[in-house]
TrEMBL record:
Manganese found in the keyword field: yes
Stretches the record annotates as Disordered: 508-530
Protein name (database record): adenylate cyclase
Domain of life: Eukaryota
GO BP annotation list: adenylate cyclase-activating G protein-coupled receptor signaling pathway; cAMP biosynthetic process; intracellular signal transduction; sensory perception of smell
Keywords: ATP-binding, Calmodulin-binding, cAMP biosynthesis, Cell membrane, Cell projection, Cytoplasm, Glycoprotein, Golgi apparatus, Isopeptide bond, Lyase, Magnesium, Manganese, Membrane, Metal-binding, Nucleotide-binding, Olfaction, Phosphoprotein, Repeat, Sensory transduction, Transmembrane, Transmembrane helix, Ubl conjugation
All copies of domain Guanylate cyclase, residue ranges: 314-441, 872-1017
The enzyme's E.C. designation: 4.6.1.1
Family (UniProt): Belongs to the adenylyl cyclase class-4/guanylyl cyclase family.
GO cellular component labels: cilium; Golgi apparatus; plasma membrane
Organism expressing this protein natively: Patiria miniata
Co-factor note (free text): Binds 2 magnesium ions per subunit. Is also active with manganese (in vitro).
Predominant subcellular localization, coarse grouping: membrane
SMART domains: CYCc
Amino acid sequence: MRGKKSHLGGGETPIISGDLESYPELEMSTTDADIAKMKRRERRKSRLSVGDSCYQFLPAWLRYQFKSASMEATYQTYFTRQRRDALPVLAGFALLFDFVVLALYIFKSLSTAIAIMAITTVTNLIVFALCQYKLVTDWTLLHVMPYAVWCLLTGQTAVDLVFYYFPMSPSDGVGWQVFFIFASFVMLPIRLRYILVLSLFNVIVHSVMVGVMSTVHVSNLGAQLAANLMMYACSMIVGCIVFLMADRKQRRAFVETKAALEIKLTLQEQSTQQEELLLSVLPKHVADDMMEDMGTVNKGQFNRIYIQRHENVSILFADIVGFTAMSSKMSAKELVKTLNALFANFDKLAERHHQLRIKILGDCYYCICGVPEQRPDHAACCVQMGLDMVVAIAAVREKTQSGVDMRVGIHTGAVLAGVMGQQRWQFDVWSTAVVLANHMESGGIPGRVHISQDTFEFLNGEFEIEPGEGETRDDYIKDRGIKTYLIKVNKDSVQKAAAFNSIILSDDASTTKKSEEEESDEKAENANGKTVTFEAEGATESRPDEGITNRKLYEALVERETDAEKTSGMRRLTLWFQDKNLEETFHREKERQSPVGMGCAVIIMIFGFCVQLAVLPRTTTSYVTFGVGIFLVLLIFYTSMATSFRKRYPDVLISVASWMESTYVARTLIVTCVAVTVAASDIVDMVVCENTKNPITELDTQNPSCIYLRYYTYSGILVLVAITVMIQVTQFVKMLLIVIIGSAYALLNLLFYNDLFVRYDEYNKEQAELLAKEGQEEKDYYNDLPSRYIITYQLLAAGAALIFYNRFLETTNRLLFFWKYEARKQKEEVGKLRIRNEQLVLNIMPIHVAKHFLQSKRKDEDLYAQDYPEVGVMFASIPNFSEFYSEDAINNQGTECLRFLNEIISDFDTLLKAVRFRSICKIKTISSTYMASSGMVAEPEKIIYEGEQERWQHLADLVNFAFALRDTLDTINQQSFNNFIMKVGINHGPVLAGVIGARKPHYDIWGNTVNVASRMESTGKAGNIQVIEETMKVLKRFGFKFQQRGYVKVKGKGELLTFYLIGKEEKADVLPNMVV
């Protein structure tokens, strides 16, 4: 056989299992392909490009912007929301600054400064409260409050510089500015371009003020301004890098989270569609039980049975009288289309009257009331349903000008409801009450509703009745002495039903009016033998609404942020995850940006050394400490870059870098080493700096004495910044390093270099007195507070703010990790749910049919149908099972009998797993009858056969399957000491396979081939396989032996010559088993 082959080898026979590897067809499903396309589309959208912003002036490796403008806008909103939580840290720093400065002003009794700082302190307090507790709108919090905080800080530092520092020197207030500039980059939730502008404004204002207003140490003004600018530049560069790296990390997290959420939402939507399709066929309680048992191991002796007993249920059977005559005038497609429209309308009636449709058996409609929810008016609902069906068929009779009518039978009793077997599940009911209801229909009268005595007793006189005399028309009713009634037709109820049915039928009429173009397209598809879909007007392809998707994504992101700390399970104090495994995973997670912190440390060391060259002693020790330190940090930095540039590094360095990044202890030791090295390059120089009591007024870089010792402390603030940008370690490691290194600087200022600071202050005091004598200022305006305290306070305040910022950073990193973990976990869970639902759906209908319904939103009148020109059909029944079935107490009211039948059918289903039966497709079970087909391949028109032997190989497989069913039943008989007998009917030819209705889809096959196969079973003899002459001739080529039975009268076909298949020649000349 050449051409395209189905990947299932013909009929699709997925077996329910928790092992996903046993479902190769799932890997090729459209849903997975759609997800792959969505991932590729998302990657294209998320590619970063150079925008028309300030990014274009940055190096290529620092430029990040999404190509999609909408995605960039969404990200900017998201990123800004993420950074807004850092704003209270900066506002708190400003408030701390206010308290200390205000205390100093009160100590000096500076009334004007006190008034100004009091106002700014209160304002800062209000701003802090608004930011911390989010007491303003999101727009205000994101677009107003950041600028308000910046303005307050800028104003406070300017006021402090004017009122506090006298006499002013070029190095005054530099520590505040260094920290303020860095804090603006990492704590203000605004765009980078605006931060750069604001920071440059700060630098210019401060430089102009100290340059113009300084009155001491002005002889070294140029060197000090240069040192200041280098420290500002260092702070800006490091801040800019941290901003961009945070932006990059956030973008990566945004893309990953957005993609995960989109896939999750897509899977949820698909899962919902699958569940809706599933629940349209199975009641919810049955479907829930099945999904719960998916993938679990059954430890019991028997297969799990999903059957429950329900008392006081009314069962309705409705058969179309004259259907055979009407169908003889129609093609198979026209017939199925007519049934589809009629039964879709019946489904609407069933919904109106609280009925649960069970099955469609040819032209018979079968429903019940009282399952799964009990109703006291179940009998009345069934009767009204029957009356409306009679009215509905009358409208069809008038429309088609045929003699069709509806015969309705109803009985009330107990039923066993559920599903049977392991494949092609259909909800069904079993009991003697169901059998009687069937006979109530066959013993009824066309155009009337025929009810039993039990049903009549539940009507409570709601309907008028007349004697039914069912015993005169049905022996089963007669043998059991059952009294029956016919419902009298009420004119009012007929008018109401006619009005309702007119609406339904008018809808149906409107859907059948297609344009000539649609009809021609349909005929063209039909002529080619392809799948035909009769669509209702307005049926649309299921396309996801991008607006709705974006709204859901935004809501998910906002909800995720709102419940962040609650859902993440982080401890309030330590921020550790309560889940130990999650905490270990977080520590093991590879940090891709580990070189960034090392690079910032290199930058800070270089700028610190340049500052030292400008205003600090140039000693041999300073050159040695810088040389050793920069070599060590550069070595670590170079090594850490190996994982980012693998092609340019040897494998040894790549392995070392990978180990450094992935091992938490190694990362901690390396960060500690770098921090200590950077700090040591300053602290060692401080230690060797000569502590002299002689006042020095002129700068001499060759002199070991330090005039501007405070620049060491300013460098110390940058060292603390270097520790902060080490994103590889936790907040506790950073806090410990900040406390230790900050304390080292503080101790040197307060204890070891007390005399040097004193001499500096005395010199400034002398200059202040000199200025006072010259009449420039009042004498008592001089600041008496020792400068060592002010400098140390700047260092400690910056350290405290950075500790709180590190906590915020740790929280953000942990939340990003948790959200990514949670999104991945939820995606996996939803994916598993989708696969479970898909497995259940595939046990109801073939995969290509299920895809048709899952990918499109269609109306109830829509019909899916496909021609199969060469198909084998088999009906295999156990005729003596009805004798075995008993509803006595020992059989648990029939439950144990059905449990045994479930074992039989499950064993039959298990045979379908065999490779030799891959071409067999189970259609359904009808009580104890097993229906299957062969040769139902996808796109049969594309298959080319090399000969008749190959063409009908699947029919031989179907016969072998029938033999296997019989052997399996014999084995069961031996094990259970029963004597069940199988009766089989087989036929071959064209069929029409499809689904009737979209609200409650029913997959089945129709056509003369199916009808004859059913008659071959019903007219056959127990223990035999009966076929017609045409089928016998095909199978004889495969070595099967037959015995002629003779002519058998078949309803609607007259007399047909039939044969019993009695066996197979031992050495038949046949092809190897082939699957089409």
